[in-house]
Write a structure and sequence with these properties.
9 helices; eight-stranded mixed beta sheet; alpha/beta; single chain; globular; eight-stranded parallel beta sheet
Length: about 375
Amino acid sequence: MVLTGATVVLPTGTVRDGRLVIDGTRITTTAPENVQVIDVTGHYVIPGFVDLHNHGGGGASFTSGSAEDILKGIHTHRLHGTTTLVASTVTGDLDFLTQRAGLLSELAEQGEIAGVHFEGPFISPCRKGAHAENLLRDPHPADVRKLIDAARGQAKMVTLATELPGGLDSVRLLAEHGVIAAIGHTDATYEQTVEAIDAGATVATHLFNAMPPLGHRSPGPITALLEDDRITVELINDGTHLHPAALQLAFHHAGADRVAFITDAMDAAGFGDGRYWLGPLEVEVADGVARLVEDGTIAGSTLTLDRAFKRAVTVDGLSVEDAVTALSATPARLLGMADTIGSLEPGKFADLVLLDSAYDLKGVMRRGEWVVGPQLH
């Protein structure tokens, strides 16, 4: 098919009254005869969103649900424009996590998810957030290796408090195996964070959240993570996790090429308020904000990436192009998938989102098939 009349956001710039040609699952340059033409004048066509950090949605958990549940959660996020998703686990018993890794890796092998992200159990009890403290452990390389092996080549990222015993050796292990070492849920100092980056860490797990605040005498991990060009910083742009000024600070120092918007979504995303479980911990979701029942700690989010995009442009004042980079191109590059996803270019998968002039979602295509058919009226 051919989409015509749209404002198309390309890596080289934004094209008004553009056209996008889709042949099968891919974007191409030449349209065959008798091709279906869809006039999407007045709309934006942007790349499908890529979520590096997502625990579930649609009432389903990637940590504890069945394969059917997980597919339901994946589909919920696809309805909101996320065409590529990494499934994240939360802290649990190591044997349980290796079992989950096996199930999730099957779905990755089938192309339903882009891999597995282990958030915990190798994190700091001082900055545990919504993770069960009794299940936390130091990041000994042998234990980290168990999770990598259990994921059968589908482990994409492990979040670590790299200051803990074994942390730096585990970062080196992950780098050797082509798995992203992410610094997060950490109580590290500035100096310890620099050491972890030098050892091979390349991502900041939800920057600002679950780490010491920035101080003028004790700059902490935030400063080290923002100033180093080797680090991509995750940001949860839901209006709850970050003040807009903190987001602007991150963009000012890192730029769109080093920012990846994530959801950190849990089961309630795209589903509604109520009681849920995040691993072994009970969560109350009220007015779209998820908090632990026991102490009120923020417990992931109910964010979907279409909302993160709209907020970035309408509230945070980012350009459409920068928002697209942070939601698609940067995470695709980080995952090593920039040759097939993350931008609208010939030869890449036809993964795209259709937005109206108010940046509301009006269509989603994944691999050349409409997940949400174009709603043009």
